Inverse folding.
């Protein structure tokens, strides 16, 4: 199987290394807007790799690919996906499909018309804990669900130059939580109420963005949801999902590396240099790629199965559109300070 990679940045490099570990992938063509970066990535992949660097991204579409990974800058996603499906090449595209709702809608339509599979990279769907939570709810173990909570806490803000094109906290970060809640519960969100704050660097405010935000969700069966995100969680990267039901409650993402400290009653906390109790250092998750390492590998394996025709598409473009609708509703609620029905942003 010959796979192409558009984008040799941080996530592209991670995907390239993972693809080189898959025995079914016999060739990897790497391209980037900066040809030098593509050559550097191809050169540092495992010694037995058959990776080849291309001089231009456009060369990918005439390279006899069986599949394409899109990990380029967000504003290039829609064009690359549409060119790939026009060339009859199955695509894995990092979220989002496009930088705005109009572009997302257009790309979804192009993919649907082509009949070519486009898998969107919502890696949290492939996290073992999240999958187990979905199964626990579906089995009836939790009873009826009354509350679901999800958080995305980054240890440090992104570079200032990233923020103006990020789409904002809800579209860039919280969209993962919104997709996960739909995926795990199997329900749709009908209303949202969002708010945010800026207490960190000025560049968020200057770009019309926020560094911390939360949204209250109402699902179509009356379940309440709460999503929270921040760019300033210096204790470490924290992504958890909590489901509270009439019979039982479960949490995912809670382990020895979760950056929270349990304070014993009637005793002053003894924080050590690494933040652990009693003075010992604590090894926490440094970022989302570390926290979801296994999930990233699993979604690429799933894409290889999709390309080979062994399974259906686990995250089609229509799912990405639904998540984008919810992020749009949160942004509208944030701007106008009111409850927003999700039908207001749907096409």
């Amino acid at each position: 199987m010959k796979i192409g990679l558009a984008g040799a940045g941080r996530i592209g490099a991670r995907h390239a290394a993972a693809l080189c570990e898959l025995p079914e992938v016999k060739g990897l063509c790497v391209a980037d807007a900066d040809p030098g970066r593509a050559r550097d990535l191809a050169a540092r992949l495992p010694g037995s790799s058959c990776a080849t660097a291309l001089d231009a991204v456009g060369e990918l579409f005439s390279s006899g690919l069986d599949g394409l990974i899109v990990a380029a800058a967000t504003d290039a996603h829609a064009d690359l996906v549409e060119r790939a499906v026009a060339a009859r090449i199955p695509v894995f595209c990092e979220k989002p499909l496009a930088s705005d709702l109009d572009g997302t809608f257009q790309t979804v339509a192009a993919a649907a018309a082509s009949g070519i599979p486009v898998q969107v990279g919502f890696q949290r769907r492939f996290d073992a804990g999240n999958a187990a939570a979905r199964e626990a709810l579906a089995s009836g173990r939790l009873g009826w669900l009354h509350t679901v909570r999800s958080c995305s806490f980054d240890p440090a803000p992104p570079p200032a130059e990233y923020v103006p094109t990020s789409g904002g906290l809800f579209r860039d970060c919280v969209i993962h939580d919104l997709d996960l809640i739909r995926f795990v519960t199997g329900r749709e969100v009908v209303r949202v109420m969002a708010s945010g704050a800026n207490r960190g660097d000025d560049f968020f405010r200057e770009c019309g963005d926020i560094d911390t935000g939360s949204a209250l969700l109402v699902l179509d069966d009356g379940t309440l949801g709460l999503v929270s995100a921040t760019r300033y969680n210096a204790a470490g990267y924290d992504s958890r999902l909590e489901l509270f039901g009439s019979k039982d409650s479960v949490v995912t993402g809670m382990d020895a590396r979760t950056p929270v400290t349990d304070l014993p009653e009637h005793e002053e906390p003894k924080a050590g240099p690494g933040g652990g109790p009693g003075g010992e250092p604590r090894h926490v998750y440094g970022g989302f790629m570390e926290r979801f390492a296994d999930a990233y590998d699993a979604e690429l394996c799933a894409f290889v199965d999709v390309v080979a025709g062994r399974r259906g598409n686990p995250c089609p473009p229509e799912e990405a559109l639904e998540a984008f609708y919810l992020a749009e509703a949160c942004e509208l609620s944030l701007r106008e300070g009111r409850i927003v029905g999700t039908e207001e942003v749907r096409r």
Notes: The chain has ten helices and 13 strands. The domain at 128-291+322-344 is CATH 3.30.360.10 (Dihydrodipicolinate Reductase; domain 2).
